[in-house]
Amino acid sequence: MYRTGCLTEVPFEVTSYMKAPVYLYYGLSNFYQNHRRFVNSKSDKQLAGHEVSKRSLEVGSPLAYPWEERSTVEEFRVGSYNYSLFDFVYSPAGLIPWSMFNDTFLLYRVASDTERQLLCNSSAFSRLTNKPLEAVAAFGKGCIKKGIAWSSDVKEKYKPIYFPPYQTHHGPPLRDRAPYFVWSASPSAYGQNASATSDNVYFENGWYNEEPGHAIPVSTDEDLMVWARAASMPKFRKLHRILNQDLSPGKYIMVVGEHYDVSSFNGEKFFVLSTLSWIGGSSLCLQKMYLYIAAASLISAVVFFFLSKQYKSRAVQAVEALSSS
């Protein structure tokens, strides 16, 4: 297992032609997304862009507030005023946003011993609009991020978060009433101008408190939507990007920016490149089972049809014999 925060090159070979679209998945093992506490650890109202009350936010705990599991709570400045961690709530709150998979992928085709062709940069996309940040022409046809999540999630369930107006807070702590301020990705990540700067480096950069570099997700990020769809088994894979170009047989290199720590739960992580056929993905177990059941049902129907014909004719003959006698 590699330590997090490093770049890992994974060379591999494509042995058969893969026709576009090619789907890039990431996978985890020994991660129980179906645990009840994990599934409930988000605020649907908050993710839908509404102002939350204390009651609706409690479903996001733990990791709902930046003061949780902190021995000291110091004041810091935002704009012209001083605030405490008690004045803020994470947005989005809960274990689901906090634990979102955040490794990055660079896919290269090996043209020669000294030349690589970049096919996909998974991090070159806006977290707000999910559109490319750089020209697609820079890496061929490239890959896309927009469209990896369910359309119902994009249209209905996930909206830009609610930003309450900054104001001086002189009341009781946040845990005793509805929150006033949100601790989130920076307003610029949502396409808004920052109303005030802060001397707290975590708040200013949109990081989780005392977790350097751990960015708080943007609520409209389709990576978050995919992650929030809980897997039923501890080993799973989730759609990450879609490549718009064919992959011909040859040598490739995946450069993985490892930021996601799996050692804490004794897990493993992996990536998969796959295509779809008319019957679905490369794992045909479920499709084969459906075909076998359908074939067995059809054969049974035919057998019972002929049996009913045979026994029906005998029954008619018996009735006629009784009538004639």
UniProtKB/TrEMBL annotation:
- Residue ranges spanning the membrane: these are 289-307
Where mainly located? membrane
* Superkingdom in the source lineage: Eukaryota
What single Pfam family name could you report for this chain, choosing any that match?
CDC50
Q: Which UniProt keywords apply?
A: Membrane, Transmembrane, Transmembrane helix
- Location in or out of the cell: Membrane
Q: How does it sit in the membrane?
A: Multi-pass membrane protein
**Per its UniProt record, what InterPro entries does this chain match?**
CDC50/LEM3_fam
A Gene Ontology CC term for this entry?
plasma membrane
Name the family the entry cites.
Answer: Belongs to the CDC50/LEM3 family.
Q: What protein am I looking at? A: LEM3 (Ligand-effect modulator 3) family / CDC50 family
